[in-house]
Amino acid sequence: MSLAMNDPATIIEADRAHVWHHLVQHKPFETIDPQIIVEGKGMRVWDITGKEHLDAVSGGVWTVNVGYGRTEIADAVRDQLVKMCYFAGAKGTIPGAQFAERLIGKMPGLSRVYYANSGSEANEKAFKMVRQISHKHYGGKKHKILYRDRDYHGTTIACLSAGGQQERNAQYGPFAPGFVEVPHCLEYQADNPGEGYGERAAQAIEDVILHEGPDTIGALCLEPITAGGGIIVPPKGYWERVQEICRKYDILLHIDEVVCGLGRTGTWFGYQQFGIQPDIVTMAKGVASGYAAISCCVTTERVFDMFKDDTDKMGYFRDISTFGGCTSGPVAALENMKIIEDENLCDNSTAMGQRMNDNLKALMDKHACIGEVRGMGLFQGAELVQSRETREPMDEKRVMAVVADCLKQGVIIGASNRSMPGFNNTLLFAPALIAGADDIDAITDAVDQALTRVMA
Q1: Cα–Cα distance between 447 and 179 in angstroms, integer?
Q2: Which residues form the signal peptide (predicted)?
Q3: Distance between CA atoms of residues 29 and 154, nearest Å
Q4: CA distance linking residue 440 with residue 455, whole number of Å
Q5: Beta carbons within 10 angstroms of residue 308's beta carbon
Q6: Assuming Cys at both sites, which of 35, 93, 172, 266 could form a disulfide with 350, CB separation 3.0 to 4.6 Å?
Q7: pLDDT at position 195, please?
């Protein structure tokens, strides 16, 4: 049966019958319609019923950094695809070379870009690099990869093996060996308040390294700001001490910028907020703002040089990403970067992020269920609690009821859910970097109304 493209009922039934959606339980679709988004412009999207929504999560998963309807990106992609759509990554392309040069220009100290097409895949590449370096240069011993509780690095088995969100991992084991968890800095906040808290939290990482054996640890993989785990900004002194520890034990520092990259926090990359120099940086999502699939695994020249050995036929990085050879990704990324530069969107992220943070903190005076507001740039979170005194997390069902209420109002927000047992209690906000004051106020006004109704 051909689809009548102008008939919403036909489209909805085709979706219900054949599409397997991401992160969704489909049982309710037996009695309710799946939501289908058909158009976007700026900060707003429209569903198939014609209802307009203000998008406070940049495409649902923090991706559309420059907003919807950017004809300059679409036109550049169209022109490139007609000229040269694809060639395997063993060869070069003009947009691949151009974007790599522009990207490295934003990342002092790094020099090489490996293309792939999703954040999970970019992290897989990094893990493979660490493992191959271990075999080539350390006799296979320095192979372990440390990851942090609450951090998230992707959906593959290897990425879940490096994932600190137990509910996301549930039912997908057994996992790959050689991945070792370190505590999150948040665990040390209550017992180590005040000056020096960041350094003491970082010390927990060194404790794990010493327990495992420094000569067995190849890399430490961390998000600059914990994203889906609750938008947690590490405390002062934390990142500097983490870098010192990595240098001390010759451990590669791998920063996962899949969420925080490309202006989300107010700088080009989240790690740049903390004055550190990583060895490996992975990114996706906002690299092309969802206009094309692209991810990058970026390394220092030192890491790259570890694979330059023509005396060993197995010594090069023996990896391929089929669709890492698509030219649509880098050409969209070039236009995306130009928009961020021309419209000063990093600065806007800082300014509008501060407005959102102020608005949410103002709501704390009205709603006792807001235990803490935290974030950086246009990446903000409001943690909901049963009691501020005990910090007991709000029940996940009530948190999601707030999200549902906002959706009814025509505002799409996010929340940590089905990730960490007992701690899925943070409302998440990541609007496009083009957001204006009226957009920010509309988002927080919707949260105010939702909290009033849900917590009544």
Answers
A1: 38
A2: none
A3: 26
A4: 22
A5: 10
A6: 266
A7: 66
- Amino acid identity at 432: A
In the block, tokens 């000229």 appear at 83
Tokens read off for 53: 């929504």
The 10s digit of each residue's pLDDT in 121-157 is: 999 999 999 999 999 999 999 999 999 999 999 999 9
**56 backbone dihedrals φ, ψ, rounded to 5°:** -100, 10
Domains 35-66+344-455 and 72-342 share a fold: no
pLDDT digits (tens, 9 = 90+) for 221-258: 999 999 999 999 999 999 999 999 999 999 999 999 99
Rounded Cα–Cα distance for residues 33 and 207 (Å)? 51
Place of tokens 């084991």: 173
Residue 325 phi/psi, 5-degree rounding, is -90, 0
Check: CB of residue 17 under 8 Å from CB of residue 4.
Answer: no
**Angle at alpha carbon of residue 64, lines to 90 and 159, rounded to 5°:** 55
Domain boundaries, given as residue ranges, for the chain: 35-66+344-455, 72-342
Q: How confident is the model at residue 197 (pLDDT cuts 50, 70, 90)?
A: confident
Fold of 72-342: Aspartate Aminotransferase; domain 2 (3.40.640)
List, for residues 2-26, the tens digit of each pLDDT value.
Answer: 445 679 999 999 999 999 999 999 9
Beta strands, E only, 184-309: 217-222, 252-256, 280-283, 295-299
Q: Is 354 exposed, middle or buried (0-12, 13-18, 19+ CB in 10 A)?
A: middle
Amino acid symbol at 341: E
Please provide the CATH number assigned to the domain covering 35-66+344-455.
3.90.1150.10
